[in-house]
What we know:
Layout: E1 4-10, H1 17-25, E2 32-38, H2 45-54, E3 63-67, H3 73-84, E4 89-92, E5 98-99, H4 103-114, E6 118-127, E7 130-134, H5 142-150, E8 161-164, H6 165-171, H7 183-194, E9 198-209, H8 222-240, H9 249-266, H10 272-276, H11 293-303, H12 307-328
Parallel strand pairs: 1-2, 1-4, 2-3, 6-9
Antiparallel strand pairs: 4-8, 5-9, 6-7, 6-8
Helix pairs in contact: 1-2, 5-7, 5-9, 7-8, 8-9, 9-11
Amino acid sequence: MSKVSILVPVYGVEKFIERCAISLFEQTFADIEFIFVNDCTPDNSIEILGKTIEKYPHRKSQVQIINHEVNKGLAGARNTGVEHASGDYILHVDSDDYLDLNAIELLYAKAVETNSDIVTCNYVLQWGEIQHEAVQNIGKDKVDFINLMLSSQAIVGVVNKLFRRKLYIDNNIKAFEGVNFGEDYVTSPRLAYYANSVSKIDNPVYHYIQTNTNSYTKKLTKGHIDNILFVFEELTNFFGNKEDYHLYKKAILEGKLRKKIELFFITDSKYWNDLYLAFPEVKQINDLSILTVRENIIYKLIENRNFLLLKLYKRSYNFAVYIYQKLKGRL
Length: 331
């Protein structure tokens, strides 16, 4: 049994897998098992990974490559990784991303120091050489942390969080196979619900790459919208069956509102009529001061079904963002 299991799904990342693997094998922390899940990648990712492993003979015995017979998607690959893990703690790493070399040392030291079930960190959004730090807000306690995630005010991704493996095993927590957009949204809050304590290191040790167009999350389709609707249904069912549901009900409602607004803004207009009918319960929210100015504008246009003006606003906003990103060197 290792102290930490690093779980890496592999699909369509031949341009990125070597950098990812090097950052893992060169960790300053020794007691790690590395589990790569080949989700039927159609490119040379596994061949490149194999050559990289050969360069680190001292790590070779710590590496497993699990091959899926059929493509299961991101959630299925994550589940396979958890099933094969033996570490006290688990860290998910996407194979187009990479870690600072002291990431595991810092995260594990914090876990031991605080006896935390979850240790999280800030991460770096990266466009080539251009970087921007994303801050992980954990609030003042576990309930606060869960509510921040549920209401879309905190990073919900699993990749910047060290989880005690027992959270998965003892509570039978699995990612929902087939849900590959928003799957972290339904996983992290459930794991946090069973955690005794949550802590954070301030170091931004996880590098989240923004330039991989083959990523699981880069191609938005009608299926992705269905994923989000499913995710919130599952979250509502999970917390709705708990005695302390009253602590989380408002946050789930706010999360639905923000996600509905986001989906309108990032999807093709051909889906808008269906999206208009999604989450009708958000009409219960009377105080819209929780929204940003941009979110308020979009929501008012949605509620008035002024889709033509929404298209114009979306086009203008995206153009302004494009110019900004261009000036910042992110494109």
